Amino acid sequence: MTKTIKEKRxxxxxxxxxKKERLxxxxxxxxENATRSKIQKLIEAEFVKVNGKVVKANYKIRPxxxxxxxxxxxxxxxNTEPEDIPLDIVFEDEFIIVxxxxxxxxxxxxxxxxxxxxxxxxLHHTSKLSExxxxxxxxxxxxxxxxxxxxxxxxxxxxxxxxIAKQFSKRTIEREYHAIxxxxxKEKSGEISSNISRSAKDxxxxxxxxxxxxxxxxxxxVIDEFEFTSYLKVxxxxxxxxxIRVHLSSIGKPVFGDPTYGGRQTHYVSKLPKIKSxxxxxxxxxxxxxxxxxxxxxxxxxxxxxxxxxSDLPEDMVKLINELKLV
Length: 327
What we know:
- The protein is an alpha+beta fold and 327 residues long.
- The protein has 3 domains: 6-73, Structural Genomics Hypothetical 15.5 Kd Protein In mrcA-pckA Intergenic Region, Chain A; 74-170, Pseudouridine synthase (2-Layer Sandwich); 177-293 and 318-324, Pseudouridine synthase (2-Layer Sandwich).
- It has helices at residues 23-30, 36-44, 118-125, 158-170, 243-250, 273-285, 315-324, and strands at 6-13, 48-50, 53-54, 66-73, 89-92, 96-101, 149-155, 174-182, 189-198, 206-209, 214-225, 229-236, 291-300, 305-310.
């Protein structure tokens, strides 16, 4: 049984001297705690009308336009239960929680993963979580893939959630990942840029594209090199789903151990029995992609200053690096 979904209703009349502006940008500026992505979802779901008609997010508002918007407020679902799951909390105050998520933990409930998620653990830890999201995602501002470890910031109230979400939208969040990938780089630092779109062959995967998808930018710097792999520092300018994994795979250097984008296949390695045995031993060390969200920095909406957080590499990546150094 689910509680009745409430809603907020808004009505705006565009001022006489208002300059032309995209509808989504206008609503983001006039609705408290709104984020552009949330507004775009409301428009796409036809919860927004201009002069009684459904329009697109890029509609240019005009003086005297009547804009009506409905914002459904989804209550916390009763079937998302608090679970006593240990959390590695790096920082917590009355507004945010910064969590070091382990590999193997799903960020929030979804089809096939209704228990054991970060949200289940958070609900047990605190009763204060923002409710700007749809059902099952209280407090969640951004996500990490199930098998990517590292730092996530969670919001305890709607104002804080909206303010930090806007920083993600404006790309002012500072994020640094550490990754181990196949191959070596001629250029020890550089940028990988391409559009990323959902794969037409497998809807669970993403791929680079020329004319479709969203522009994506990944910056890398080589920290160390081994016999047939590299240890990288990676920074994101954009935050597309699977971005680092897709970009590195697209240049023939998939993240080591990544089962989705070719990281569990032999690359640059002799197929002699001795080498194949070593390869299998390395795979046994890390049953996932060797990718960790190591640092996170953002402007704290209440402290009015930038805050930075760091996390240690997880044990499996440390063990993998130590093993790679042996050759």
